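Margin note from the TA: students keep mixing up input and output lines. Inputs are the sequences; the output is the structure of the whole complex. Example:
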Amino acid sequence: MAPRFSVTYFVRAADAGEAKARALDIALEQTVEIPRDVVPKGYVEEEILGRLESLEKSPDGRPGFLATISYSDDDIGGDFPQFLNIVFGNSSIKPGLKVEDIGLSPGILALCKGPRYGIASLRARAGIGESPLLMSAIKPVGLSTKELAGLAHDFALGGMHFVKDDHGLVDQKTSRFDERLRACVEAVGEANAKSGGKTSFVPNVTGPANAVIERAKQAQEVGAGGVMIAPALAGYDVIRTLAADPDFTLPIISHPAFSGANVVSPDCGFSHRAFFGALHRLMGADAVIYPNFGGRFGFTREECLSIARACSAELGGLKAIVPAPGGGMTLNRVAEMREAYGNDIMYLVGGALLQETSLVEACRRLFAAVHA
Amino acid sequence: MAPRFSVTYFVRAADAGEAKARALDIALEQTVEIPRDVVPKGYVEEEILGRLESLEKSPDGRPGFLATISYSDDDIGGDFPQFLNIVFGNSSIKPGLKVEDIGLSPGILALCKGPRYGIASLRARAGIGESPLLMSAIKPVGLSTKELAGLAHDFALGGMHFVKDDHGLVDQKTSRFDERLRACVEAVGEANAKSGGKTSFVPNVTGPANAVIERAKQAQEVGAGGVMIAPALAGYDVIRTLAADPDFTLPIISHPAFSGANVVSPDCGFSHRAFFGALHRLMGADAVIYPNFGGRFGFTREECLSIARACSAELGGLKAIVPAPGGGMTLNRVAEMREAYGNDIMYLVGGALLQETSLVEACRRLFAAVHA
């Protein structure tokens, strides 16, 4: 028998009988997808068929049960999308089911080497000790490359450790990808020369299927300090592929665009910690952007902290990564965020800085507030 | 000014004032993602910023409004993932928003050539007139290539027009992708030689990021009759890339694995017709698999029929595609489905046929029932 990994699902159900029936359905649906009475005896039934390992009433008061189902490493077939398919392929379409947690196995860990860098290396790149990291974004779409590079320069001069493309910046005619990449790497380099800082420029390489890997490698050649990818748009295996590529050496920052439905509904998708924490670490993201509590998105403080904890909790020996909450962050929320997150965080502040008269000064005030 | 495309969102809101505020937030969030007071005058404000075109109370009784927002073709940047990002990138993370419909523009139609084949060509391949198509799936994972090829043979001999891999079949050690592909193409060819039929074998090419396109091209070389891809796993641009590739000539069938959260919640994601209809046609899928009503998934009859209608409704001149409802389909539901869907459908029947003593006979009974 091969080793098995496990998935714990929240199963909406009125009673234990209904929950058990639904859990056994998941075990069937996610593996053999045929009626129970025709599952072939022997290898298929004993190895491939999902196995209900435990079932208990949901301890947090939600109207349902937690069902843990184990799956065979043999079913993964060396294929991360197939791993996701086993975790939640067809069952994602059934209301009242949610992936709560994932228990690893040797097969998953052989496939997913995890982040190449993680939080410790990102801090080393930024030249800081165990203090928070700072990131900002050049925007909006529609500005010229010169204007965007000017923003990148000022963010760097103001002390941001990472300056990224807005996730909507791709290859628009107002600022072509390759032109912007070169101009921003150069602008950040100039600011570093002035300040003695070590700011990295991080282009958004999310793009057409045949361009993502190419743009990521171009970013490396030109001297960028990382790349940003939105896995829900680019495909869930792209980050893993890049993180495992021995010729690719940049940190990877993930962006949550288009992934919202996977987490916002209490009735489907994933728990916040499983999606933004465990899955993104397995993919190999070094930092994970997600919407902060109290901003313009609806995540609660507890959901956000569950993501932050999942970024560093023991997970098969994979490196701890950086939670990067953003979305409506302002300077006067720093105290509250420091209290909530502590030091293992990357503050992503964008629009609020652009509202200030002097961008460089605004960045410096933010830097001071975060490191006070 | 560039042409504009539009997106109609359902916006949960208590009154028109709240709805308008939320709609203006979407217009900002999906384009410039900075506070309204710092949006640069001129090109950014006039061209790039989303524009609220209309707002009306939801006519179907849901507690909210329909907001139509237009976006500039300039923002797409020749990039389908960026188009999706504009449609619903960050706003996917806000509860109480749903993409209802998409209004096309020249920019989208330049980017999305749509399905290469569509329903008429799939029927021609199958050698039938304006009658329903039939598809089945070889499974489960864990069977040997020989056993799976035997099933493919029998499905073909029984009259199924398309025989596909189960979406969980990838490159497991029990049946390697290339070995299964060759064996199944051969087995279906043998059955066709016996029956005079024109059954196509359709391998699942969803897989690692660097393998999908390669496996699709391998399928073409070996003589498969189509490929199946789950876009939510493989990435939303892969089908479009293949459909637009002049050297790739196979029909593409999409599978809904891992996409459930995008449709099942009333509070987030897409309407069924926008997701499985419009988006899949824009991607270039020739047939779209989705869970049928009354099976083991929760889609309603009306949701399913809205998908079927969206597969053939006028959409920028793109070809009509085939709705392929499946998931718990049995022989005794044929009458009900014929009444609901008419002839423009591909019946996807899998597990129910495997429960019968003679697979070939079961397929023939299904064929007869569908064409009676």
